[in-house]
Amino acid sequence: MTVHPFVRSIGAQHPRVRDLLALRKDGSPGRIMVEGTWEHDRLLTTTATIEAFFWCPEAGPEAGPAVVDRIADRATEVYRISEKLLARLSRKTRSDGLISIARVPEWRPQTFRFTSRSLVLVADGVEYAGNLGTLIRTADAANADCLVLTSRRARPTHPAVYSASRGTVLSTPIVEFDDIPSAAAWLRSHRFRVHLADPAATGTYRVPQYDGPTAFVVGSEGSGLSRAWHDEGFDAVSIPMLGQADSLNVALSAGILLFEARARKEGW
C-alpha cells in the first residue's frame, strides 16, 4: 500500500476539518462532501477535482488498499484521521473511513446546444435534498440534456444529494436561474415546448407528441408549481391519479414524464 508517504495526521482543530464540518451540514457552492466506498468508486469515474481526502484506516476493511491509493493519487491533500474524529465527521451510521471534498462542475446556460431530441427537466422550488438528488439521477437515466433549477430551496451540494443521485450530480449538467421569467425566456430562445406538470390539468401526459426540444417543469413537494410558471402561458399535463392519492412523488412524476418523451423521441 503506497498511501502512507502522502498522509498527514490531523486533529479536530485543523482548518480542513472545520471546512468539512461546514460541508457536512449543507454543502457550499461548488463543493460537496463524498463519503463511502461506492461513493468514491463513482467519484473516481468522473473528472471531478478531489480537494481533500480524509482516511481512517481503523474504520473497517471494506475499502482495500488499492482503492485508498487511487483516491489519494487523485486528491490534492490527503489526511489521516482518528476513529473519534471520524465519528464526528461522518454522516453514516457505520462509516468505512473514506471522506472527500470534491469540486462540482459549473455549467453556464449559454454553453448549451440543443436538437429536436433534447430533453430538459426543470425543478421549481424543490425543498428536500433527497428528492433533488433523485431528480438528478432520473434526468441522467432518461439522458436529459440538463436539469434547470428555479426558486431553489435544496442545495445541489448537500451531501444527501450525492447519495440520492448515485453520484450523477458530478456529471449531470445543472443550471440555475435567479427568476422564473429568465428560465422561461431561455427555454423559449432554444425553441423548447414546455409542459407544466400539474395534477389539475385536463390533458394527460400521453397527448403531446414530444417531437421537438421538450422541457417538463415539476414543482415543490408541498406547494407544487410557482404561480409564475403558470403565468408564462405554457401548457400543462397531468398524470392520471386512479386511486386515493391526489399526486405522486415529484421524482416519480418526473421519471414518468421524461421516459414518455424519450420513448417518443427514440421510437421505442
TrEMBL record:
This is RNA methyltransferase. InterPro entries: Alpha/beta_knot_MTases, Ribosomal_eL30-like_sf, rRNA_Methyltransferase, SpoU_MeTrfase, tRNA_m1G_MTases_N. SUPFAM superfamilies: alpha/beta knot, L30e-like. The keyword Transferase applies. It comes from Kribbella sindirgiensis. Gene3D superfamilies: 3.30.1330.30, 3.40.1280.10. It comes from the Bacteria. Keywords: Methyltransferase, Transferase. GO terms for biological process: methylation; RNA processing. GO terms for molecular function: RNA binding; RNA methyltransferase activity. The keyword Transferase applies. Pfam families: SpoU_methylase. Residues 119-259 form the tRNA/rRNA methyltransferase SpoU type domain.
